[in-house]
Specification:
Two copies of one chain form a homodimer. By secondary structure, chain A is of the alpha+beta class. In chain A, 58% of the residues lie in helices and 13% in strands. Chain A has a three-stranded antiparallel beta sheet with strand order 1-3-2. Chain A is elongated and about 50 Å long. The two termini of chain A are 12 Å apart. The interface between A and B is large, with 38 and 38 residues. The first copy, chain A, binds a DNA duplex through helix 3 and helix 4.
Chain lengths: 109, 109
Amino acid sequence: METKSAVLLLSSLAQEARLEIFRLLVQAGHEGLSAGVIGESLQIPASTLSFHLKELSHAGLINSKQVTRFIYYSANYDAMNDLLAFLTKNCCGGNPCTTSEICKSKESV
Amino acid sequence: METKSAVLLLSSLAQEARLEIFRLLVQAGHEGLSAGVIGESLQIPASTLSFHLKELSHAGLINSKQVTRFIYYSANYDAMNDLLAFLTKNCCGGNPCTTSEICKSKESV
DNA sequence: ACAATATTTCTATATTTATGGAAATATAGA
DNA sequence: TCTATATTTCCATAAATATAGAAATATTGT
């Protein structure tokens, strides 16, 4: 992943409503939740919610699919994993480092 | 960590110059780099760089200390770890989940 | 086709954020 | 103290982002 893609993902998450939406979907699991349920849970007006869902979709952090009359949104776990990998990549120039979980968590390449 | 703190950290990283600065510092390790060297490496004008360093500092993602005539900035690995933990917390409602590294990486509580 | 419900687009406005030159403020060596 | 170097603050401007009501656009059951 390059910096620009990472910035897109981070920007999507760097907003209170969107971060809450995303975390709600991460916790909801793979089936996801309908837009209406999300708005109801988080008390966000429909048009505002739609704006934020579009941002998250555009960044590729969430997926959507129509189910009967509802649109179900779900977290894209792979995109999230890629972002986490990017952020921890090359920690300490690849040297072993005892003070940080970042480095301990996986080999940096 | 609560949503607002996480948004502060994410906002700090959600900008191309700042993400590059942070990653440069993550890779530089604990000694860090002087402002001048950062600006030189990334070709960022001094006043712009100072603005971004302040943002990162304010969010707690980097630390600074004066060394002779230079100010050395270094990544705050702990802040980063906290953020990563927050983002992966409660994945799939705590249920085991085979498709995602997020869930596999550590127990979600 | 009609009515009810779900979601998005349009629009205007308010707010926040980024940029970089010029000036101000350290810091330290001579 | 004078001078050179390092970094920050001030400032004006430009650009991007967030908000939510009203209207438009699906979708489905009757």
